[in-house]
Design goal:
Elements: H1 6-12, H2 14-23, H3 29-33, H4 37-47, E1 50-54, H5 63-72, E2 78-82, H6 129-138, H7 141-146, H8 149-157, E3 164-168, H9 182-196, E4 204-210, H10 214-218, H11 230-234, E5 239-245, H12 252-267, E6 275-281, E7 285-286, E8 319-327, H13 329-338, E9 345-353, H14 358-361, H15 363-369, H16 373-377, E10 379-383, E11 386-389, E12 402-405, E13 408-413, H17 429-432, H18 438-442, H19 448-455
Parallel strand pairs: 1-2, 2-3, 3-4, 4-5, 5-6, 6-8, 7-8, 8-9
Antiparallel strand pairs: 9-13, 10-13, 11-12
Helix pairs in contact: 8-9, 13-15
Amino acid sequence: MSQGSPFLQFWLTDTTRDAFLSQVHKDDLPAIRLACHDFGVRAAPFLFRDLTIAFRPSSFTRPARMAALERIGHHVRKVTFNAPHTPETFLPPLLDPVSGEERLFIYTPQVHLPDTSGVKARIPKYGTWEVTDLLIKQYSPLFHAATDIPSFIRAFSAMPLLTELTICCPGQEPTQSYRRSAVDYALISLRIAIENVSLTGLTTLSLSPIHPAGVFYLRPAPGYGMLPNSMRRWTQIRSLVIRMDNNCSSRCDARTDHLKLLRSYLQTFSHKLTDLSFCWNGMKGPCPLSLDSEPCLVGNSPSANPVRTQPLKFHGLRYMQVENAIMDASQISTFILQHRRTIKEFAYEHIAFRTGNWDDALAPLTKISGSEKWKDQQLEVMDVPLVLRDAGPQPTTVERKELVLELEPRKRIWPKMKGKIGLEKGSSPASRLEKVGSRGRDFLRGTPEHVKKLLRSSVLSWI
């Protein structure tokens, strides 16, 4: 190919080549890499940018897989770690084979491999040889892979340019909320690996979904292999997304422990976090950002002077979203006042009020802006399915056509609360009525001529 070839000029220009490769479907990138060596080198960063790890017993121990990860790891920017709750992850009580009594097992993480130079110098993995033998015989290989911390460290050491980490732990049964599983041990190993590897570019963390106790094993608190510099890695996080399963009952005392763990985990990111999104999966739960005024945690102490939970404040928070929560209007207004100097945009979706309404919750906006003009400028986004019902062709009685509109408000957004309250611009609600959804098309019946006659009728003349 000549040096003046248009394709060669296109391919050797970084901007045009990268723009092209970013639009190529990921399934087609392997074929492009097979064309020639240069194509393989240029397309590799786009093919291996996102990596999904389905945690299995051999995920981090198979030599060929780890060798491949070390070759492509410098291209990885985003990792999705999937560790679903399955029957294989369930850990039954550890029983003595002779007496049948339950044996106590205290887990002590081993960050480094023990010295195996001599047989006599070997150290049991789980404290004593007796307990180690019972665990090998009674627990699945997935448990032993979850406690293999050196393999986790080796895997994440191969991805030094990692910027985004997503942890998915779906499928926990509500009856197992207070019982430790192999997934929890995997989270401990994952946390220790992240703290021991130099991942200076890691700024985004997503827990979607996560079981309530999962944040306890991801929290850099004393115990479970914490290092003196463990907090340094987590203070890098700027964007945090949490979608937590709400497996607790509606009684406050049944979920108090999980709420305290959640608040303690969020406190870890309070200094440098800028983007925060939280959602309850399942039934509505309390707002995790206002637990200091939550009835579940206020006045639970039997003492005469109960210890009050301190308000949770994020010093650099700019964007916040809370979804599927039940709360008081005063909690929203207090949060707005506490973060009015930093926050630019906040969103509350699918909120149920115990007390008050939206006017009470957003009252601080009037105080901040100095007027109520923000009420006239607020943007309310909604879905408007258009449903057409027809009496059918050739009616014997007077034909009747009915237009049904279903309005379901989705969310409200009030950004730019620093100084003057501004609101985002968007299309008007009337322009959204022009879109007919799939539900509306399902109601169209009859021949094409009949549909044309229906659309010309005076009922639809206002569209």
